[in-house]
Amino acid sequence: MLELSDKYPSIMRAWLGNQLFIIMTDPELIKLISYASMKLKNNTMNDFKVLSSPNTVEKSNLYRFMRPWLGDGLITAPTATWRVHRKLITPTFNMRILESFIEVFARQSEILVKEMEAELNGNEFDVFDYVSRCTLDIICETAMGVSSEVQTKKNSPYLDAIKKIADIAFMRMVKIWLHPDIIFYRTSLATEQKNCLKYLHSNTDNVIREKRTQLNNSLDSKNTESSVNSKLPRKTFLDLLIELSNEEIKLSNKELREEVDTIMAAGHKTSATLDTFVIFMLANFPEIQQKCYDELYRIFGDKVNEETQITRDDIRQMEYLERVIKETLRLFPVAPIIVRNVTNNLDVEKYIIPKGSSVVISIFQLHRRADLWTNPLEFNPDRFLPDEVAKQHPYSYIPFSAGPRNCIGLQYAMISMKVLLATVLRKYILHKDLKVKIQDIQLMTNTVLRPANPIKVKIMERKKIN
């Protein structure tokens, strides 16, 4: 797809079997849109954008291959279901609730650095395995309130099942002969998928039943709003969903499972991959790593190397680290493309995008366009200084998508990543034996962007400041 997009204009047609895809990398084409098939009054062109158009809210048919696993969760749900669930789920991602998870982020990150001690002063090692286990422990505790202890127990059937089911779904997306159910369900992949689904679904169902029992036993007269915002012990996303759903729309256990599985799938894989890319960039660019550490020293002072609890005020001061994360997301967007169905003919400048086709937004190429970014393959976190951001096209940087169907977990991801990365940097110096050029990093995708080869770094202990 990248080779084709480099060869042809920023809006082009491509076919996968009998499905027409319209691929865009131009921010103006992504932004500006008018409707050929609808008469809209009192609106201007700028009121409409491809990603927020009511005609492109529906996810592509390719996402149907994830539905056996995620059902009608936010990622895969049809528009009518998505609107109801999104409205219901949004309050569980408010900042007060997210900040209540900081203790979990910090505690699991401390376990991570202790587990990584085995690699101290040794050779370069694959960092993704360590980070992936940590992010799974974090998401299990914050989403479901269960302790998976994957970091310390090592063996994780849940982690293995998630990887297998995601690989199978992506394989069906790109191999058109596996699209028809009549073919797929006669393959060994279908058997493997069935086994993974049985394990994953039963695991979540068991947790939901236990949570419902616990919450039913502790019901009081408080309304939903006071329940969410009260100073009771920290509640998980599942706790909050059950409580909120009791107010207006009661979610069934199946619907709860689908939303929890979606949070688990999206939250774990994207965070683990992005954390790993950031660690790689910090090791690859020691001068930038030093700036991050200098910022942490300004925040924590002489206690920078001690296991002092990270607070929400500390996180808010990690401005340079946040720019590093954003620049990593520019070069390595974990969701490299967005695909939406077109439910009515759309006029985009001189083009008509026909009903029934799919719009593909190539975020990966959008973020690397030389006409939008100076020296696009240079790693420069200062691109995200406020003055520089003001100069950017508003649709030149959309790592978490845009419009109403954007990623609901943006702030959750940013807070958890800051805590994990700060914890690692306070303990270790990250190092690469040989510096790697951005353009030489080989990439691939299987629902998220990832390195084609393991990301390996070396760690050395930071000397404590007297």
UniProtKB/TrEMBL annotation:
May be involved in the metabolism of insect hormones and in the breakdown of synthetic insecticides. Keywords: Endoplasmic reticulum, Heme, Iron, Membrane, Metal-binding, Microsome, Monooxygenase, Oxidoreductase. This is Cytochrome P450. Heme binds at residue 407. GO terms for cellular component: endoplasmic reticulum membrane. Its main location: endoplasmic reticulum. It is a peripheral membrane protein. The keyword Metal-binding applies. It comes from the Eukaryota. Transmembrane segments: none annotated. SUPFAM superfamilies: Cytochrome P450. The keyword Kinase does not apply. Its cofactor is heme. GO terms for molecular function: heme binding; iron ion binding; monooxygenase activity; oxidoreductase activity, acting on paired donors, with incorporation or reduction of molecular oxygen. Belongs to the cytochrome P450 family. It is found in: Endoplasmic reticulum membrane; Microsome membrane. It comes from Microctonus aethiopoides.
